[in-house]
């Protein structure tokens, strides 16, 4: 999952980025509205964490601009996703401030200072709603993934996955049965400036197939990877250590 943090306080941005990365997110940070809009226009972020008091304006202005895009953003590759889940994080704690933020299009609102675990729980709830799920667990046949604990079971047995393996599996499960390109998967797993090998996605897919069964993830040559909506019967996975 790819998160954009729009926060001009370096200390808050750094601590929040660390918490998000430990929870498995690929994270990018922008200290201004202009930088955030530029990032949103070129990368398919899954969630936006938005401060309000920024050096070049109010975060609500960016939120309103994002929501005004409407259907145009779905058909135009150079525009951000207008329906992206947005969490406002601010020191503005008045009831009128919270009402204004939510009525402007935010999906949730948290007041600084906040507990990192509460923020992560709110993000999970937002992303669950955005994907149309009501249950906290993601189930696919005998495969069960828990985003909160970052654990996976298949056929009742725990399967140890590395951080990027888990992120890749989560991305594919949430998108099923859509085919995701290698570039889209790279953007979901790696932030700006993070080094990655040219075959990193192929390696992660290979590890997931070895641990969870060859039939789980399908390849469309020259296009990308997907998990079918229909569940394939697979042998019980092998116990293994994280990569």
UniProtKB/TrEMBL annotation:
Keywords: Cytoplasm, DNA-binding, Phosphoprotein, Transcription, Transcription regulation, Two-component regulatory system
GO BP annotations, alphabetical order: regulation of DNA-templated transcription
Modified positions (4-aspartylphosphate) in chain numbering: 51
Domain of life: Bacteria
The keyword Transferase is annotated on this UniProt entry: no
Location of the OmpR/PhoB-type domain: 135-229
SMART domains, A to Z: REC, Trans_reg_C
A Gene Ontology molecular function term of the record: transcription cis-regulatory region binding
DNA-binding span(s): 135-229
The Response regulatory domain, residue ranges: 2-127
Keyword Lyase appears in the UniProt entry: no
Main location (coarse class): cytoplasm
One Gene Ontology cellular component: cytosol
Pfam family, one: Trans_reg_C
Location within or outside the cell: Cytoplasm
Protein name listed in UniProt: Response regulator transcription factor
